[in-house]
């Protein structure tokens, strides 16, 4: 394939995960070396053998997973590797001044003295961008930057990107959210299976047309699989996964199923808990979840959603408040009790919380359920039972490669997530707590995860869906709580959905009634 | 099978490489006949470990086979137990540097139970072994408790507890309250001699010091392997070691698993001490100088922290070290077996650095970087 | 195919090797040769030294000197034996042994020395020497007592020499084995002399003793030393400061306690503490550098060379002579399994030459010599256990 990127241009590269966008960008950033072909900068052929070369050439990259040292300050992270020194020692004050100057020049609001682990994901992303700019990046590559942002933050990011382009910088945006790509890019390159299949201008195309270009054959593959396994996969899932409204006559998502309210699974009042840093993270949350509904928790990252999910799964102790969860108290809940009562958990930080990457796929499928059949017989592991169940699940969830003995880390992120979802749903939970279930997944995987969540709802599972992606919440949830600074600042039923209003609540605007 | 071979290969290659390096070193320290001496020294070492087959073939008594084999097996037993101790702790994500101290405590407990408790034979040996295991576990438990309740890093606490153990046992208990008594004027190093009922029975009678301790070590290795690989709690232990947060989220009692693994590590090291005391020494000697506890770290790493790998590595180095003493007959220094072991560890540990260096070397460097420019082109990939 | 060839080659090599070995001195157990029958071939004599190893300037080196230099007439240099000159032998002899120099003739023996890495190496090392045809196998130090017992019981045909300990049974009772000669020393007698000298030299009337591990063996040093000080300076005996470090391999501990003794006013310190004692000597050396007049008294070998200015004298244990005598008895066919206890009279212990100068040196040495003669002649019984110390009275010389 061949791709030109012009100076002062905002180019969007869209395509499924695995389409080759990331590989392409890693070639530009010097992480991968092309088997053949060449990279030219300013008409001169160059060989990028390391990110260092790329940085020297003015190419900066903001990865999907941030490359920041959490315990260092913003300024320290930005200057890391090229620290200003005075008499051989690190000159902290100068670093702060320099970073503050860079922030001001490009219009970022960041405190250079703040520790990175105290920042929201949105702010951390800005630190990444500032880091690249501080190193003199002329070309900035952003990999899926809006996946974790609120609509407001995403809008701000769009403004930042336009501002950079206006200052003559080049921005390459990798995304699969077609709506925002259409709104911000000068030019859109569509990739599929390692090839450039189209280059279009936003004015000449539509989201539907782009999606069709992007998905191409894989749409048939996904729907084909669903048909084969006899499951009802909403054909709209793909559209929805790329951030498009389904059956959107009036731009409003169609109501999902599961409108039959069942028993109350969870009822909690005044929940309070501390965050990792010891500060109050939940400051009095009232919550109820019934059988057969998906309850969305929306909010800007770092407003207590994660802590709420951890409280519900027994990972974090309550400091105040009470609740009833599946017939037992919420106070003093341990992860083992939560599991025993029927709580499933798809955590946000997959590699830390959900799976053990060095264990095999089948061992990970057993994790948390390893004490009983079919995974164990008495005190002993039931190898045959485990293998059989793993193979069934891998096939049913289309995990590739369907190899139960591979170490989990050999799978791609999307397939790892499928393993987690498969495991949790296979346990037939009565309440399922999912956090950011589709972050970093490709379209096919996103569609499948969404379909599975709907399927669980249809079978009576109550689902608590925490997502920073408001569109995902709106697409799936029957009711939505908006969290801001550990409090519920808004409650919406499907009929009341209003993206702008929710955005305001996410930023702290109060609601008259609950 | 292929996977296992791949995992064992770095250790095997490292050991081979260290053998070659030491061979070369021995040869270099000689003015004349360097290579011949080095080869002869290696053969002495081999015969000292697996039995002096050439002499046997020439008609020497069978003891020229059984004695060296017994010595090798005993060293292998000790290395297996301390290696397992380190490996088990490692499996749960803890680095047990304290096997030495745990071994000391275990040895002392075995010596005390062996000498000061009177029991019939069928009970005496299990009691002494149990005492050693409990003492070692308790000693490791201190480090475990400090880790779990106070957040003290186990490397620090186990290292310090080693010294506490040396001071407590070697420098006080064994020379003070527990010193063996002899006739007036006679000096005994160490504690009182154990009763015959608590001596580990010798498997080949008088022709070798090979005793029940070797069987014990083999059983321990297989049991630990089966536990880790085949049982629920072993699985939980591995999960905790590889990802404690995920394990916690999965409802696994992380602290209990870590505590148990640390205690088991201590018990294994304690058993090593017991095998030494009940098997060959007959008492806690004046000082337990042999650093089998520290060797355990090397054995565990060379054995890839796999219980059976640990057993294999221990067997190999047991042979080497039992035979190594014979190299002195050719005036080669007694410490070469340790050097071989040390180098092998270095090569195993340095493998990643090694690979990284090779990879970097294989990517040729390119000269000048063009000035920053806002346009990049990727034609034809 | 290739592999098999290599195996064959290896086997051939092995046979060659072992044949070669048959021809060289340490003949195998497979060909047990009576000493007298093959008088031309040197007799292998094995020595297992304890974990202290070669080069400890003390106990092990003394045994090695007796075996290698005096008995075999060899020097150990760079991992090899070379023939020693008579001059080498003469230089290694302390002054009081000059009279026997002529009797130290090289014997037709071949030394085989094994160092031990750990306690549990003693038995296999002794066994290896026996298997390799060692006609006399020496265990140097009481740490080897158990190992010598079990080896001697398992190899009744082999001869052993155990230095510094009796053979003890499981209950700690003396056990006589028909093939083991044991040698004990009257450390108290030698310590008595250095104590007497210390009493004559001290100006502060405070002297110190640093012991290693508090076992009867080391207590004998202290008791003899106390008796000596009591003889020449009773008031110093009252104030004698005695400390045990609890180890034989912790130089820092020895240094620390010695510094403490010096701070409390001791100006002569006798050590019987192995490597800890090297720390004692260091502390004394440093105190001297700081202007204090302090002396240390060495032990086992003449330790004067460690710090020539600071060492008043040393209490010698002649393990070298013991080893030589045993080797000579072996060659002469007179080796017997006796229990020897060697004191001043038998040249088992001695006070080393005093190489430093101090006021009244000649007179002091005279007095010590007078005491020595009284001990040798049996007029004076030096106590060896603390209980006898209170009743001990000796007229000042």
TrEMBL record, chain A:
Entry-linked Pfam families: ABC_tran (PF00005)
Keywords, sorted A to Z: ATP-binding, Nucleotide-binding
Lineage: Bacteria, Pseudomonadati, Myxococcota, Myxococcia, Myxococcales
GO molecular function: ATP binding; ATP hydrolysis activity
Protein name per its UniProtKB record: ABC transporter ATP-binding protein
InterPro entries, per database record: AAA+_ATPase (IPR003593), ABC_carbohydrate_import_ATPase (IPR050107), ABC_transporter-like_ATP-bd (IPR003439), ABC_transporter-like_CS (IPR017871), P-loop_NTPase (IPR027417)
ATP-binding recorded as keyword: yes
Annotated ranges, domain ABC transporter: 1-218, 266-510
Family matches, as CDD domains: ABC_Carb_Monos_I (cd03216), ABC_Carb_Monos_II (cd03215)
Stored SMART domains: AAA (SM00382)
Top-level taxon in the UniProt lineage: Bacteria
From TrEMBL, chain B:
Transmembrane segments: 7-26, 76-97, 104-123, 129-149, 210-228, 258-280, 292-319, 339-358
Keyword terms: Cell membrane, Membrane, Transmembrane, Transmembrane helix
Entry keyword Transmembrane helix: yes
GO cellular-component term (any): plasma membrane
Main localization (coarse): membrane
Keyword field contains DNA-binding: no
GO molecular function: transmembrane transporter activity
Domain of life: Bacteria
Membrane topology note: Multi-pass membrane protein
Pfam families: BPD_transp_2
Compartment annotation: Cell membrane
Name by which UniProt lists this protein: ABC transporter permease
Source species of the chain: Myxococcus llanfairpwllgwyngyllgogerychwyrndrobwllllantysiliogogogochensis
Classification of source organism: Bacteria, Pseudomonadati, Myxococcota, Myxococcia, Myxococcales
From TrEMBL, chain C:
Keywords associated with the record: Cell membrane, Lipoprotein, Membrane, Signal
Keyword Signal attributed: yes
Origin: domain of life: Bacteria
Domain ABC transporter substrate-binding protein PnrA-like, chain residue ranges per copy: 48-383
GO CC terms in record: plasma membrane
Compartments where located: Cell membrane
Organism: Myxococcus llanfairpwllgwyngyllgogerychwyrndrobwllllantysiliogogogochensis
Family: Belongs to the BMP lipoprotein family.
Membrane topology according to the record: Lipid-anchor
Key word Cell membrane present: yes
SUPFAM superfamilies in the cross-refs: Periplasmic binding protein-like I
InterPro entries on file: BMP_lipoprotein, Peripla_BP_I, PnrA-like
Protein name in the entry: BMP family ABC transporter substrate-binding protein
Entries under CDD domains matching the protein: PBP1_PrnA-like
Principal cellular location given in the protein's record: membrane
